[in-house]
Amino acid sequence: NLPDEVTIYEVGPRDGLQNEKTVVPVEVKAEFVTRLAAAGLKVIETTSFVHPEWVPQLADAEDLLKAVHRDNQVRYPVLVPNERGLDRALELGCTEIAIFGSATETFAQRNLNRSLKTQFDMFAPVVRRARENGLRVRAYVSMCFGDPWEGPVPIAQVVDVGSRLLDLGCAELSLGDTIGVATAGHVGALLDAFPRERPLAVHFHDTYGQALANVVEALRHGITVIDASAGGIGGCPYAKSATGNLATEDLVWLLDGLGIRHGVDLHALAATSHWLAGRLGRPSPSAVVRALTKE
Ligand code: HMG
Ligand code: MG
């Protein structure tokens, strides 16, 4: 039994562009976000309020949010690790944030400069104050399936970290396959390990070409929020071997075939990714974008 409708949570401007070697001009980013909204995406993770030296690609977060004409039918969440990041997001009138925890010790150290344990101390006041200000908070948990330094990650450890993040007061938990090593059986086992009522989303990277198979498994488990990145751009600067996210176009092609509603205009989206690929100076890694935009 598959759902009738899903929400595509677009992460291209954030997860995609955070990993580009060149810094994309803010006007190009603003046009990218605007075109994604015009293509029908209703949730667009726009940027990050992290330390600018940690992710210089997104150091223009303030300028970008000022440059984007926010459509009131569209949600524009931003990544926030700590209270300093929250202050910056509040200043810009953001109404939705995402915190990002790690399921492993090594990645907590490398991505957050915190231990597995102390990451919660950093996030707790962020979630509390965000909610006091009426913001919706999503939580990510990274390295849910494998970690480049620690190898396979025990399911119980992921459920423990994810549950603690949700219990801080988050509305949704996105399970991140940060390095793209998951396969469908592992996805099913992890989803089964969470209590049924937990509001879960999935975030796959396509390193081993398994992202779509993993999505089908998640749909079979009743998941209705799926993260994807236009054109399949992305990765993570603090996780070697992380390649692009699942491409939004590949996801839309799958959903169309399954008759699952998503609200996105595939051709407008593929044209946007084709345009961005020109700006980035290399072809889109998405098979669907390449098939639809052959000249
Ligand atoms: P830290 O060095 O421990 O920070 O970094 P600190 O709290 O010790 O502060 C040091 C200085 O940084 C202070 O300035 C702060 O004000 C400043 P000083 O007083 O020395 O002048 N500072 C900030 N400035 C601007 N904005 C801020 C901020 N915070 C502190 N937000 C920190 C800790 C968390 C900040 C750092 O580790 C960081 O920025 N990490 C983010 C790394 C990142 O963005 N990684 C990529 C995203 S995660 C991902 O991609 C995975 C995901 O896609 C899911 C998946 O794929 O699985 C979500
Ligand atoms: Mg990611």
UniProtKB/TrEMBL annotation:
Pfam families: HMGL-like
GO BP: ketone body biosynthetic process; L-leucine catabolic process
Enzyme Commission no: 4.1.3.4
One Gene Ontology MF term: metal ion binding
Keywords: Lyase, Metal-binding
EC primary class: lyase
Ranges where the Pyruvate carboxyltransferase domain occurs: 6-270
Entry-linked InterPro entries: Aldolase_TIM (IPR013785), HMGL (IPR043594), PYR_CT (IPR000891)
Keyword Acetylation: no
Chain coiled-coil ranges: none
Family listed: Belongs to the HMG-CoA lyase family.
Official protein name in the record: Hydroxymethylglutaryl-CoA lyase
Organism of origin: Herbidospora solisilvae
